[in-house]
User: What shape does this take?
Amino acid sequence: MPSPTPARKPAWVVPQPFDSGGEHAVRRLLRTLGLSTVCESARCPNRGECFASGTATFLILGDVCTRRCGFCAIGKGVPGPPDPDEPAAIAAAVLQLGLAYVVVTSVTRDDLDDGGAVQFAATVRAIAAAGEHPPKPGEPGAGVSRGVLVEVLVPDFAPKPGALETVLAAAPAVLNHNLETVPRLYAQVRPRAEYSRSLALLRRARELAPAIPTKSGLMVGFGEEPEEIVAVMRDLAEAGVAALTIGQYLQPGREHLPVARYWRPEEFVALGAAGRAAGIAQVTAGPLVRSSYRARLLFGS
Assistant: This one.
C-alpha cells in the first residue's frame, strides 16, 4: 500500500476560501437531476471555486471506473449500465445553470463495446439541442446562450474500433485526452494505459477532424524530471495538440500514490514557457491547474 505523502503541503497548493452559496446551489441541482461531477468524485481542489461560480465538469457513465490508476480518487469496480436518460439530464442542468461552456468527461468503461462513445455523442448532441431552444425569459435557465460549447475529456477507448469517430461525429468544440504523466512512470501511474496509445488518439483526432482542436493534461509530482516533461510536450506539439494544462498531483487518500515532490510556482511558469516554445499554442501551468479548470478561458468566448 502506498505510504502517505511525507511532506506538509506548501501554501501554494492550498485552495483559497470561496463563497459557498453558489456551491450549495449547484450541488442541490446535481442531486435533483441524479448527476455526478468529476469535481466531487475525483476530489478536485478547485471544486469549491468552480461550484461557487456556477460551473461543473459533468461525469457521465456513472462514478465507478474499470481501471485502477494510482492517482485517481474515483471509485473502482464493476459499473452499472449506461443511463439512457443521462444526456437529457445533463442538458437540463446546462440550461438551469445558464452555462455557455460545458466540459463532459467519464470514467473509463472497458466493459462497454464502444467504451462509452455513444453516450458521449448523445450528451454533446443533447446539449447542442438544448442550446438551440433556450427557455423563455423568466423560465429556469433563461440565461443560457445559443451555441453552447462542449469540450469532451475522453478516455483512451482501447481497444474500441470506431469509438473516437463516434465522438467526433457529434462535433464537440474541443477533444481533450490527458496523457497524465511521462512514459517512464506509466506502469506506476496508469498501469492499464499506454503512452503511445494515448498519444495516437490525439494524433488520430487531428487527422479525422482537423477543425476540432485537441487538448491534453499532465500532472507533476510523481518523480518525473523536467526534461521528461519537455519531451512529452514536444510529442504533443508534433501530434498537433493546441492546448495543454499542467498541475501539481495531490494525493487524494492514503491508498493512492504519494507525492514525490511539490513543484514550486516558478517551476510551473518555466514549464508553461517550455510548452509554448515546443509549439503548443495554449499552455496553462500552475499548482492547482486541472484539465478542465477554467477551460472556457482557453477556447470559450
Observations:
- Residues 14 and 45 are 8 Å apart (CA to CA).
- The radius of gyration is 18 Å.
- The chain has one domain: 11-295.
- DSSP finds eleven helices and ten strands in the chain.
